[in-house]
Design brief:
Blueprint lengths: L1 E7 L11 E7 L5 E5 L6 H8 L7 E6 L2 E2 L7 E4 L3 H4 L6 H11 L4 H14 L15 H13 L5 E5 L7 H18 L2 E5 L3 H7 L2 E6 L4 E7 L8 H6 L1 H15 L2
Parallel strand pairs: 3-8, 3-9, 6-7, 7-8
Antiparallel strand pairs: 1-2, 1-4, 4-5, 9-10
Helix pairs in contact: 3-4, 3-5, 4-5, 5-6, 7-9
Bound molecules: adenosine-5'-triphosphate.
Pfam families: ABC_tran
Protein name: NitT/TauT family transport system ATP-binding protein
Keywords: ATP-binding, Nucleotide-binding, Transport
Amino acid sequence: MEVTGLTYAYPGAAGGRPVIEDLSFSVRPGEFVCVVGPSGCGKTTLLRLLAGLLRPDAGEIRVDGTVVNGPPEDLGFVFQDHARALLPWRTAAKNVEFGLEAAGVPRRLRGPMVQDVLRRVHLPDVERLYPGQMSGGMQQRLQIARALVARPSILLMDEPFAALDALTRFALEDGLLEVWHELAPTVLFVTHDLDEAIYLADRVVVLRRNPANVVREVPVALERPRDQGRSRAQDEFVRLRFELFETIRSL
Ligand SMILES: Nc1ncnc2c1ncn2[C@@H]1O[C@H](COP(=O)(O)OP(=O)(O)OP(=O)(O)O)[C@@H](O)[C@H]1O
């Protein structure tokens, strides 16, 4: 994914001031990139642009060399608010199947694909449950399953674990890394949590605000597979946290 000179102002913004101005960065195929930055700096707006849900005022986004002009078929999106993102009147299996219907996959092929992805996100026995009968962590796993079922090459995630308790969050981070290793999508993951960004990412992109722009790109050289206890205790982890914290504090 190549983002070049991206500029966007919400219609009616005071003075036509752009939220994002002349922002450029690129992501390699299969890379896991986390995006951090001050609250309100434009992280969600950036993801909406990347998903083709908003149209840039200037600049462009290319995926595999092709300019993004609308929602690409080959892209999955996971929102923070699982309760609103899932369809409460459809069972878990039918929620995941929705991702295949949208991708135009024939009905006879859908069942095994749904079961396979539910197993991968560690939700093997929930097919007949409704989202309202599942915990927050399970619902978020379900949303990830729905985003991954059609095997997108790009996965955009907007603070997906922010509303979860710490232990559930750790479990979901590890579950996400597991499916990322298996299915190898390119991931762009927005988070407020610097530790989460370091734990997950190959590279952390730091944005500043007014307007949003890349101030720093920090490679994360921690070995994989990562471990919640051991990785976070490494000197390199602590050093990266300090570096990111100081960068954001200076903005
Ligand atoms: N639909 C909208 N119309 C007008 N302005 C908007 C709209 N959505 C967001 N904004 C403004 O754009 C700016 C960036 O918002 P955005 O949600 O992208 O930031 P963010 O970095 O994701 O925020 P947070 O970290 O709090 O989740 C904010 O000033 C916000 O008020």
